[in-house]
Design brief:
Elements lengths: L1 E4 L9 E2 L2 E2 L10 H10 L3 H13 L12 H6 L5 E4 L9 H8 L5 E3 L16 H15 L6 E2 L3
Parallel strand pairs: 1-4, 4-5
Antiparallel strand pairs: 2-3, 5-6
Length: 150
């Protein structure tokens, strides 16, 4: 079982080089304070590597797929909960919807957030409740979102 929230499938997440980076939702109501907190709490090298991952990662380049991204996505055999933010400008929901159509057992559930890219972090009560409810239903085996069967 795989859970892909927001664009976590493309980012480095919270761990790098054996260190767990602190994550804070401080400034959720103040974007400037949130940006300051984010950059203060992260190592610059981690941010550079995360940006490189976003720029260069393509599952089609996984050995055996010869650059065929659609075939690589079709090869995913486990149930996938794919939860992009409906308002993400870094990774538009249309791109996520396109990718999801190739994943055989995907539950595609866009997060209806006003907060864009950070919605998957659950930094505000509405996003957090939406994430928790849908993740719990997915883990319980209940059907949610747009589900594609193999």
């Amino acid at each position: 079982m795989v859970w892909l929230g927001g664009s976590t499938h493309r980012s480095g997440g919270g761990a790098s080089c054996g260190r767990q980076q602190p994550r804070s939702h401080a400034g959720a109501g103040d974007p400037e304070a949130g940006a300051r907190t984010f950059f203060q709490n992260n190592d610059a090298n981690d941010l550079i590597l995360q940006a490189r991952t976003w720029q260069r990662h393509d599952v089609g380049t996984t050995p055996g797929f010869n650059g065929d991204t659609e075939r690589a996505l079709r090869s995913i055999a486990v149930p996938v909960l794919y939860m992009p933010s409906a308002t993400d400008l870094y990774f538009p929901v249309g791109d996520a919807r396109f990718e999801a159509q190739f994943i055989p057992r995907v539950s595609f559930v866009p997060i209806p957030s006003l907060w864009g890219h950070p919605a998957g972090a659950g930094g505000n009560p509405a996003d957090r409740a939406f994430l928790n409810e849908n993740i719990a239903r997915f883990l319980a085996g209940e059907p949610i979102g747009e589900i594609k069967k193999p």
